[in-house]
Fold this sequence. Notes:
The protein has helices spanning about 10-20, 35-40, 60-70, 85-90, 105-120, 150-165, 170-180, 190-205, and strands spanning about 1-5, 25-30, 45-50, 75-80, 95-100, 125-130, 130-135, 140-145, 145-150, 210-215, 215-220. The protein is α/β, with parallel strands linked by helices.
Amino acid sequence: MRLLLVEDSIRLQRSLTLGLRKSGYAVDVIDDGRDALFQALAVDYDVIILDIMIPSLDGLSVLEELRAQGKKTHVLLLTARDTVEDRVKGLQMGADDYLIKPFAFDELLARVQTLCRRSYFQKSPRIEIQDLVINLATQGVSFHDHPIELLPREFRLLEYLALRRGETVSRPEIEARLYDEKMEVMSNVIDSTICQLRKKLAQAGSAAVIHTKRGMGYCIEE
Length: 222
């Protein structure tokens, strides 16, 4: 899943970026409001994590302009303002969630996961495909209650295909969702990840769920 983090505190920016990337997310980072607005309008993100107090254009103004231009990306506001009035104002302007500083990273991660699910109209954290269970909240995968150990990037790829089950997802779409903009994507990295996923699922006894549509991409059927 691809996230935009808009935060001007270098220390917080680095810690959040590190934690989110370790969790398998692709993260673009910006510290300026005007640049953030341009980037958010140009790129299709799953979630925007938006600090309110940022240079050149504050977060609420960025949010207001995004909604005015019809951008429906889910937005999680970060702020040190903890009054009810401030929270209500942000939500009324189109924010999807609100997190007050200081906060625990695990809480931010849980809120990001929830907003990502909403982007694909998936309310339940559990996706069941035959006897394969994908838990989006715990990032766990099991087959007949036996856990399958996946690397963060492997899980995110399986998650993305599962959220879009019934659709064929092209390689460029996967690259755009799962890899950071500045990260060079080797020509075979997606094929390699798919291969590892299939191998681990097969070792657990799960029937093949990831199908290759030659010349088009990959899909998990309904």
